[in-house]
Amino acid sequence: MISVLSTTPTTRGLGRPLPLLVVGVLLLRTILLFAAGGLALRTSAAPAGEVMAFANLWIVPVDLISICVVWWLLRRSGRSLGDLTGRFRGRDVAWGLLVLVIGTIALQGGGYLGNLIVFGGPPPVDDSLPAPPVWLGLWSLLLMPITIAVAEELVYRGFGQQGLMTMIGRWPAMLVVAVFFGFQHAALSMTSGEMMLSRVIGTFIGGIAFGIMAMRFRTLWPLIIGHWLLDVLGLGLPMLMWSLS
Q: Which of 79, 109, 121, 157 could be disulfide-bonded to 214 (CB atoms 3.0-4.6 Å)?
């Protein structure tokens, strides 16, 4: 894994302790997602379930903010996003397909375990929610998977995991980042505490799988590609099919 963060107590030009900086970046998406979701719930007269069905809408600007923050921090320390991602190679596409398979197994298994722990089986399903508009389905298929894949890999397996590795070691860093990765997904199930817990457990396990793969590759590109495909098939396509129903 390419190390792009300084091992000294501060990064050049930032003037902040590196551990606090890394933790701040890891918390950024969670704070922004909770803030956006909370604002939407407070300002909309629609039922909470319908409001949260539009979470895909505000995920994209949160992703763009996250990417810009990481880019700015790297730039202030004399580095670039390319230093963080590593060089793209054609074989990264094939490795991305492997990431898709492993990530799907991990997230499906984690989701099953989370539901089993919290609900004792399959989670309750609200069949009363109206189908979202088709434009949201297209948004969720064509745009959202790209921004999520880039933002989450830059923030978690890139800036976060690579930064913590220089301080606490590879495996502890991977586990800490997986916790942050899982916790951020609670903001996407704000209508139910049980759903929040189940989602955190499932995505924490998925975060472990992605963190281990990040330690095996010398570039983030396989993770970005695999993550993008995973969200296209697991999030975007189901949303589009729902909107067309």
A: 157
